[in-house]
């Protein structure tokens, strides 16, 4: 029989997890990698936003402009939205464990160098000052309040980068078919071969950067990645990879979700690849959840081509329908 936990109990237990990670000599906690779907003054549900736009703007051009985050913040919300994490979140209210949301890694949250400025306390999952992607995230989950209070986290811990493609390369997430020995879970993996691949990727990126600079008439100073440094990077990332799998499993056993929802194929592939780790193989609940996960588009991509209005009108409802249709994972034993 499942015993329901309160928000306070979940927050306390997550905070007590030994993450195995540190920053500038200080131990990191789960709040450095995770959060909950909650804001001090959140967005309205999408239907209200759609109604406002459709009622007040006639042309498609006007509606597209009205749906942009900066415009909505002023015209619809009157600058009342506050994405900061609610100070009263950890109450005795029942915790919503129906869904757990998962991304690949920590995106930049705050300062220009990508470091979080709110270490040591729970904060919003996204940067609360650069609002565009924060709007996209909460609109993606905003068809109704079904996901409010859900736990949200990253798979690869303690790696800050808004470019998930770099994480995919550094952790060999997409290499299963092309170079099957490169993933860290490969039984025939070789760190020297991985280091060589990192050097190849680095040189390819440098070639592109130099080519782009030449087009702009800018002198480009090429950088170099030595084999020694590449090998060191591989070893650091490999240790991080397996520690991340262990921490992910620990968090799941606190949150006890009924369904995993992941943002994008990179997150899905990372979790599926981790099924070969001891942390996942030895935990039947984690295995079932990963095998039965539902993948939705990454919120950072929404509106990039078709516009935020199309996202609100078409894509966000489709995301909600996909999650609802998938149902809960069966056979879990908490």
Structure description:
The chain is an alpha/beta fold. It has one domain. It is built from twelve helices and seven strands. Strand 4, helix 5 and strand 5 form a beta-alpha-beta unit. Helix 7 crosses helix 8. The longest helix has 29 residues.
Brief summary of the model shown:
The protein is built from twelve helices and seven strands.
Reading side by side through the largest sheet, how are the strands ordered?
3-5-4-6-7
pLDDT < 50 stretches: 110-119
Shape field = globular
Number of strands: 7
* Major sheet size, sense and barrel closure: 5 strands, mixed
> What is the first-to-last residue Cα distance?
8 Å
Structural class: alpha/beta
Provide the domain count: 1
- Quaternary state of the chains: single chain
Q: What does the radius of gyration come to?
A: 21 Å
H-E string: HEEEHHHEHEHHHEHHHEH
Continuous helix count = 12
Mean pLDDT: 90
Beta-strand content estimate: 5-15%
- Helix % is 40-55%
